[in-house]
Structures are given as C-alpha cells and as structure tokens.
Specification:
Length: about 325
C-alpha cells in the first residue's frame, strides 16, 4: 500500500467502468475512492475492491479528481466548468480517445486538464501529454514454460475483424514459417479472460499486432482523417510480458524516456516481421533473454504502485 502524500489527499478516481485502466488496482494503490458510472462492471479485474456507483447529480466530495476515459470526462464537464475541482487529470487508454480527439483536445486545453495517454494513442493529443501504461495485476497463474515444443500465440480482436491488428498478415507469415520450423500456433479468439491468460502463460512468443507499414490495415478508422494509427504495445502485450512471453509487436516504438524506459519488446514492422519472428524461433537464448527483460520491465512500470506515483506526481 502506498503511503499518502499531501498531493494525494482529497483525491478520487472516476471511470465509466472499472475495467478501464484497471481502475480498481489504481484506486487500491492510491487508497482513494473509485466512482463508477456502470456499476455492473465493478470488480471486473478481480481484486475484490468495489467501486462506488455514480449517477448524474451524485456528489463527489473530493476536490482533486483523476478521470479515466472520454465518456467519464464528458459526464463531469458541468462540474468541471463550474470550477468544482482544484486539480483535474484525465487518462485516455481506449479507442474513444482517437474517435473524439477533437472534442477532448478542446476540453482539456480550455480547462487546463493534465492529460495522460497510452503511448500508442499519443498522436491524438494536440497539446502536452504524459505517457502512461495501464496497471495490470496478474496473480496465481503458473508461468513456467514447457521445455519441449515452442508455442506462439496471437490474439486477434475477433473473428470478423481480424484485419484490425494486422492478423491476416500475421497468419500468412506463421503459415510460411511452419514450412521450415516446428512450433504450435494458437489464435486466441472468443475465450473467457482467464482462458486467454492461461494460453499466454504457456506460450513462449506472443505477437501483439502488425500495424507499422502494413498496407492491409485500414488507416482511417474512427474518422481519423489524416492521422494514421501507428500501432504500439497494447494491454494484451503487457499481459503477455508479465506471463514471461517474448513479445513482438509491429508498432511504433514510443519515446517515453523522459518518464520511464521504453518497453523492451521486439519492435518490428510489416517489412521485417518475418525475419524478426524467425530469429525468435531459431535463437532460444536471445528469445529467453528478451522475455526476462520484458517481464522485469512490466513488473516495475505497470505495477499499481509505480503508475499511482507516476500519475499523481504530475497533478497541477
């Protein structure tokens, strides 16, 4: 448990649902109340902490507020406009950040709101922002990998939208490499959350996404106009790092070094993906060293304790 500092006093979290940015874990680390707009999603991350159901008009007595997500930001705008809060921060980590970037850029600038954003979505901020990876807390899962047999896993968004993560190109590459190498490939689709975690716990390599340079991935999703989604490291990849997988992702490596080291995943692109993946298949020493470095990074920089300190120390 973190010891409260003066800056953390009189602080509350507010989210549309508790699954966003693993809000229960963050609230627990900060030892502050969590207000949730959709209480049916309480305790989704399984840590036993229940958020306080919130309805429009309900009082939030705390004068410092950290808001998680665009929907929660708009819900509190009447109170923000009335000068209700002394300090305000907002965390953007979901796709609505990209879809409504014009709207929230205006709001955050006008009301001097501190902006935290997942690095793969950072390009949608037109002003100053602070990178932040969401906290993930995985417990009681055996991550000992089998010594014999290589397992590679990937989690497409769903069967009807496999193009979203570059999964079509990933599948083609996997099929080509299977002609030369012996390994098992698991496509994680339509499974309960804990079943997905179990597969990652057994896998040696996890492919997050293949966006960078991939001509098959639509670049104008969510009405993004001239902004092209560049990909990065998502929640699924962070989970795999914590599970001891060696994660490879075809996204753009973020520049986060002013705040914390960049994730040591294998950064690749559409052009080099097959070569980079094949090296991981052929060189177990390299693969295991990368996996260990990634696990240590994720355990430190996505822990609730680190994220809580990182977010609160920048509050105005």
């Amino acid at each position: 448990m973190l010891k409260k500092t003066n800056r953390m006093k009189d602080l509350a979290l507010f989210a549309e649902e508790s699954s966003l940015f693993a809000a229960p874990h963050l609230a627990e680390a900060l030892d502050v109340p969590l207000y949730v707009m959709l209480p049916q999603y309480n305790n989704l991350m399984g840590n036993g902490r229940q958020g306080i159901p919130w309805q429009e008009g309900r009082a939030i007595r705390e004068s410092n507020i950290i808001i998680i997500g665009y929907t929660a930001l708009t819900a509190l705008m009447p109170r923000i406009s009335a000068g209700r809060y002394r300090s305000i921060a907002v965390i953007f980590s979901d796709s609505l950040c990209a879809k409504y970037c014009n709207e929230w850029n205006i709001l955050t600038h006008h009301h001097r709101i501190t902006v935290y954003i997942m690095p793969d979505l950072a390009q949608y901020s037109r002003g100053k922002y602070i990178p932040a990876y969401q906290t993930i807390n995985i417990q009681n899962i055996n991550t000992n990998k089998a010594k014999e047999g290589l397992i590679i896993a990937h989690s497409p968004r769903d069967n009807s939208k496999v193009i979203a993560k570059g999964s079509l190109a990933i599948t083609r590459t996997i099929n080509d490499l299977k002609k030369k190498h012996d390994f098992e490939y698991i496509s994680i689709t339509k499974k309960p959350y804990h079943a997905c975690l179990h597969i990652k716990s057994q896998a040696h390599i996890f492919i997050d996404q293949l966006i960078n340079g991939n001509p098959e991935v639509p670049q104008e999703r969510w009405g993004r106009r001239q902004l092209k989604y560049k990909g990065g490291l998502g929640k699924s990849g962070i989970e795999a790092m914590l599970m001891g997988c060696c994660v490879i992702t075809g996204g753009e490596e973020p520049d986060t070094n002013d705040y914390f080291p960049s994730p040591p995943v294998v950064w690749t692109s559409y052009e080099y993906f097959s070569m980079d993946l094949e090296r991981l298949i052929e060189d177990p020493d390299y693969r295991e060293k990368k996996a260990e470095d990634q696990k240590q990074w994720a355990e430190k920089y996505t822990s609730a304790e680190f994220v809580a300190i990182h977010i609160t120390q920048h509050l105005r």
